[in-house]
Amino acid sequence: MTVVVALGDSLTCGEGVGVRVRPEDTWVALLARALPAGRLVRLAVPGARVADVRTGQLPLVPGGADIATLLVGLNDVARSGFDAAAVGAEILETVAALRSRADDVLLGRLHDAGALLPLPARVAQATRRRIEEVNAAVDEAARSSGVRVLDLRLVPVLARPGGWSVDRVHPSPAGHHGMAAAAMEALRGAGRQPGRPIGEVVEPRGSSRRARGWWAVRHGLPYAARHVRELGGPIASAVLRRC
């Protein structure tokens, strides 16, 4: 049996604001099914920040796991009061703890989350800078033995509209499939071999302007209104421009 423990946020569990990928179609589920006698332990939850993973998910990781996956940081990036040093320290501490509980750790590097969004230039630059700071901590943690990296910037489908859900923040089923394939390839470097292929998936053309407009009115605007102080004015306002 190959036990895979999945930690993180909505990029792993597949549940966003007004978007949802079936649990069995998430990248960690596809990865677990591809591994010999794979069993998935789901700990990732929507909205989790790095500190939430360390305090709420890490204690639930069973000892003797084969693989622990950690993809987190985007919620920290999107919130006001972002502290790069604190986030980086939390990542390093979490990865160190995971290395003592799992044979292999698969650590995710964030993509440029603002690339598909019509963000104001100042917000886009700040978002990109924060992501680079999170990724710098990931790179430092990845220098430890037993740590492999899943770099979302290198997943081909995520460079195309069809890799994303209507909100253009969360991966579509095709995006999750691409992430699973990249994750399996990263784990080959640790000597992990698939028991069966991940399979094929049809990549859609991407959401229409009308669909994005419906999402913004039905889900994006209410969410931004509820979280305007957390997100900060510029990011909350940018939600309205996604259509």
Automatic annotation (TrEMBL):
<dbReference type="Pfam" id="PF13472">
    <property type="entry name" value="Lipase_GDSL_2"/>
</dbReference>
<dbReference type="InterPro" id="IPR013830">
    <property type="entry name" value="SGNH_hydro"/>
</dbReference>
<dbReference type="InterPro" id="IPR036514">
    <property type="entry name" value="SGNH_hydro_sf"/>
</dbReference>
<dbReference type="InterPro" id="IPR053140">
    <property type="entry name" value="GDSL_Rv0518-like"/>
</dbReference>
<protein>
    <submittedName>
        <fullName>Lysophospholipase L1</fullName>
    </submittedName>
</protein>
<feature type="domain" description="SGNH hydrolase-type esterase">
    <location>
        <begin position="6"/>
        <end position="176"/>
    </location>
</feature>
